[in-house]
Amino acid sequence: MDFRRRTFIGAAGLAFTGWDRDWHRLRLSGRLVLPGDPDYDVQRRPFNTLYEQRRPAAIALCATEDDVARCLEHASRERLPVAARSGRHSYAGYSVPEGGLVVDLAALAGVRPGREAVVGAGTSMIELYERLGAAGRLLPGGTCRSVGIGGLALGGGISVVARAYGLTCDHLVGARVVTPDGCLRRVDAEHDPDLFWALRGGGGGNFGVVTSFRFGTAPARDLVPFVLITPPGAEVDVFGAWQEWLADLPDELWTACRLEMGRPPSALVSGCWVGTPEGLAPWLDRFAAKVPVLSRDVRPMDYLTAMRHFAGCLDGCPPVEGNRFVASSRVLRGPVDPATAVRLVDRPRSGAILFDSFGGAIARVRPDATAFPHRDASASAQIFVDATGVAEAEARRELAEVRDGLGASGGYVNYIDPEMPDWRAAYYGRNHARLHRVARRYDPDRVLAFPQAV
Ligand SMILES: Cc1cc2nc3c(=O)[nH]c(=O)nc-3n(C[C@H](O)[C@H](O)[C@H](O)COP(=O)(O)OP(=O)(O)OC[C@H]3O[C@@H](n4cnc5c(N)ncnc54)[C@H](O)[C@@H]3O)c2cc1C
Predict the structure, then answer these.
(1) Is the CB of 283 inside a 6 Å radius of any atom of ligand 1?
(2) Helix, strand, coil shares, percent, the chain, to 5
(3) H helices of 289-410, where?
(4) N or C, fewer C-beta in 10 Å, the chain?
């Protein structure tokens, strides 16, 4: 046993001491990356580089489900913080615990397409779309190419076809989960039904580590991504018209309105239609009747090309580069005052509020049928502030101004915000009490604890 003393510097600048862990007892088919390993700095790096100083005690590059079970047993025995990691995109860096063990699932990637697709927990969005699209199947998922299915599906999963097909988690029919007792469970509506309920929107990092998902898929359909250019200076009218437009959209039409920070701020309306451009045109006319539209960029394409388009991979995927940012969200259950929203982004800072339309198939699921509670929302508001060259505290002050100024409550757990006021109610509403019971049942010793664990 190696009892050399080691000092870790925490993300908050606090130094704490610990003992080197008895790592030789953690035998893996995959590889354990420790500080000092030439790979360590690459392997610990999160997408949000605000957290790039985090120093986990070890990163387990798991090759099998047994590896995952051994990691959880080891962390439990050694009382180490531990977190699963799929695509590394946690806004708060929660998949890289300071001084803890990262259970990396990248090697457990892969897709077996079909009416029910089996998706390894380390699969990225673009890999998912490539494999499903080639087989003529569709699953609603995130737009960013490198987001992992692990975090995305467990928190809900908002997509450009969400109004037609619902959330990613609405398609979950089963999962293989290693719970903190080291047990591999095949979870579905009949087996561990409470856990199955919690996996659909209860948030990544809670309950256990999912090693693979089974999703119901739909036949792939042609899509029509579009962008509407509106006059500069008309942002208040544009956002007001966009909110009115949401009131009677068909399910086939999903849309977003981006209010970009700046002096002056700007607005951009975009979206995606399931079907042909002819079907879309009358709906765009309706929007154009409310506010001048200078030009329409309407691009019909097949499903796979559309998903590459949204992922920025039409000419091949560029390498994944992280960003330094702070982010949060609100959930809209009624209109936001357009003048207030535009005033909030009128600031000399890089960032945005991105409003994504809800409704349609999302709203046809009861708020307590899955753990995702925001079924009656009209839209979500994703807020981010670029923190490049800015002190974190200053970026967070501006983020809070926007988040708290919108006059909306609620939050989307996948846009996890370490400073979200009353986060339990915001992310989970009335579902929190049941989620808490499920978490205590499957993780009674809080092996998977993290700052916003259920
Ligand atoms: C650039 C960008 C674009 C995004 N676009 C979208 C979008 O279009 N739609 C949308 O809904 N969201 C989107 N998100 C949010 C995204 O869904 C969340 O950040 C999600 O948590 C990322 O999952 P991940 O696996 O990549 O991240 P990770 O950092 O690996 O994990 C996130 C959390 O889930 C846990 N976790 C990961 N895998 C597992 C697992 N297998 N079992 C148990 N827990 C697990 C981690 O411990 C951590 O707490 C985006 C985020 C970014 C940064």
Answers:
(1) no
(2) 30, 25, 45
(3) 303-311, 338-345, 392-405
(4) N
Ligand 1 pocket: which of 414, 417, 435, 450 to mutate (most atoms within 8 A of CB): 414
- Counting from 1 in the atom list of ligand 1, the atom nearest the Cα of 160 is 8
Contact of 51 with 11, CB cutoff 8 Å: yes
Whose tokens are 């790096």? That residue is 45
| Strand bridging mode 101-104 / 82-85 | parallel
Question: How many A from CA of 337 to the centre of ligand 1?
Answer: 30
- The secondary structure of residue 20, as a DSSP letter, is P
pLDDT tens sequence across 167-218:
999 999 999 999 999 999 999 999 999 999 999 999 999 999 999 999 999 9
Three-state secondary structure call for residue 443: coil
3-state secondary structure at position 314: strand
What distance in Å separates the CA atoms of residue 168 and residue 412, rounded to the nearest whole number?
A: 14
Type of residue at 50: L
Write the pLDDT tens digit of every residue in 6-22.
Answer: 333 333 333 333 345 68
The DSSP H or E segment spanning 235 is helix 235-246
Distance 123 CA to ligand 1 centre (A): 11
User: Token pair for residue 7?
Assistant: 């000092």
97 lines ligand 1 (CB under 6 A): no
Burial (Cβ within 10 Å: 0-12, 13-18, ≥19) of residue 220: buried
Whether 202 contacts 154, CB under 8 Å: yes
Q: Whose CA is nearest to atom 1 of ligand 1?
A: 144
| AA letter at 119 | V
User: 396-427, pLDDT tens digit by residue?
Assistant: 999 999 999 999 999 999 999 999 999 999 99
Q: Whose CA is nearest to atom 52 of ligand 1?
A: 89
Q: Distance from the CA of 117 to the center of ligand 1, in angstroms?
A: 20
Whether 387 has a pLDDT exceeding 90, the answer reads yes
pLDDT for 21:
64
Cβ distance 328 to 397 under 8 Å? no
Quick one: tokens of 115? 């009416």
Per DSSP bridges, beta strands 58-61 and 101-104 are parallel
Closest ligand 1 atom to the C-alpha of 105? Answer: 41
Residue 5: pLDDT above 80?
no
Q: What structural domains does the chain harbor?
A: 5-107 (3.30.43.10), 108-220+431-442 (3.30.465.10), 223-423 (3.40.462.20)
Please state, in angstroms and rounded to a whole number, the distance separating the CA atoms of residues 17 and 218: 52
Average pLDDT over residues 340-361: 97
- Residue 314: how many other CB atoms lie within 10 Å: 12
